[in-house]
Amino acid sequence: MCLGIPGKILAIRDDRGTPMATADFGGVTKDVCLAYVPEAEVGDYTIVHAGFAITRLDEAAALETLAMMDELGVIDEELGGESEGSAP
Amino acid sequence: MKYLDEFGDPDRARRLVAEIHAATTRPWSVMEVCGGQTHAILRHGIDQLLPAEIELVHGPGCPVCVTPLEMIDRALLIAARPEVTFCSFGDMLRVPGSAGDLFTVKAAGGDVRVVYSPLDAVAIAEAEPDREVVFFGVGFETTAPANAMAVVQAHDRGLANFSVLASHVLVPPAIEALMASGTSRVDGFLAAGHVCTVMGTHQYAPLAARYRVPIVVTGFEPLDVLDGIRRCVVQLEAGRAEVENAYPRAVTAEGNQPAQEVLASVFEVCDRPWRGIGTIPASGWRLRAEYADHDAERRFDVGAFVVEEPAACRAGEVLQGLIKPDECEAFGATCTPRTPLGATMVSSEGACAAYFRYRRSGSPAALRGG
After folding, report:
1. How far is CA B222 from CA A85, B28, B40, B54, B126, in A?
2. Would you say B39 and B66 are in contact if contact means Cβ atoms under 8 Å apart?
3. pLDDT tens for residues B310-365?
4. How far from the centroid of its chain's Cα atoms is residue B127's Cα?
5. B139 vs chain A: nearest CA distance in angstroms?
6. What ipTM was estimated for this complex?
7. Rounded distance, CA B93 to CA A76, Å?
8. Stated pTM of the model
9. Is A51 within 8 Å of B118 when comparing Cβ atoms?
């Protein structure tokens, strides 16, 4: 849970006052809350923890991290896979 | 060296390793606080690339590991209630309580669900108003903003059937407790990068000054960890003890302001027991009185009770960096990831699980050849 994972924002919507995004994590799509990174825009990369973006990240750094996580096979784990999901 | 090829940028890795070797003239113990860093170190064999003088000590930064036994027992009691839907991050499910774990409760018919975000639990509460939905809110400063927002949303939406079993822990008081104990062997710290993404770096300057320890804010990739170690060693060799940010792509001095504002509105500081370590003053967050209606501890009246941890488990010493996991007699024998005695063997971020996973096939040299 502490690793966090870079996600690319595909779309942004408003959910009763809370900015929410659809984000792509190396091919897996998930909902991400943007309440803490309200300046994020479509196309931006953010580091996501427990479904929340906590900071923006430049594209080169994000792609490097995603490639490494993919190689190590930890993306599922970071996205809360049931077998060995992730907490903080 | 085949090993370095796994570092994404092998040339940079080689350079960092060479710089660490060149800088080191004396023995130093460096503690990586975060369990994610512990795993990067063992997975990539970073400890094997360092000079013999540098010892990496694994710290208490795994929230699954330090969630106190009594809190797991509270979770088990609440989750077993027929009216409750108990939601948790996946890796809390196998953490042993005094009797069984959340999987046991689920197998016995309890409604235990794994969620990816605490907002998923809020959505369940909204969709199933007849259920008492409880979210197990564990984690360090990194996860707390997510859990805080879940409470705010449930409150704003009038979801009286949503509550949080909050057991948050904080990094700076843990560093303080380690250094104040007088038994610590730690000369310098690698601070947890994403904790600082949220909180900024200002909380660490007083600790660096008071205990004369460098604190280097470090990321989680192997190159990040190597760079953190390099900066820490350079400071130690120069007799400096400063807070240094080795993870500027994700960490600023002031941290995430919107997150800090919500955290301050939802949580207040409390004393918190850490599994295997004991109570550390002012080391946790609990819900403020304004959100008492969403506090599962109150709602289900799971008051204080005394629980004893298994005597054979030395997780507390591991979490304080006093012993390495394989120095415990139970390690790999009576304690394995399938039959864990303590949470450090359960969590994907626990030091014992990391040792078991990456070292069980033999010596580091064998791993290196693989």
Report:
1. 22, 20, 6, 16, 42
2. no
3. 778 898 899 888 899 999 999 999 999 888 888 898 887 789 999 998 874 444 43
4. 32
5. 5
6. 0.90
7. 17
8. 0.91
9. yes
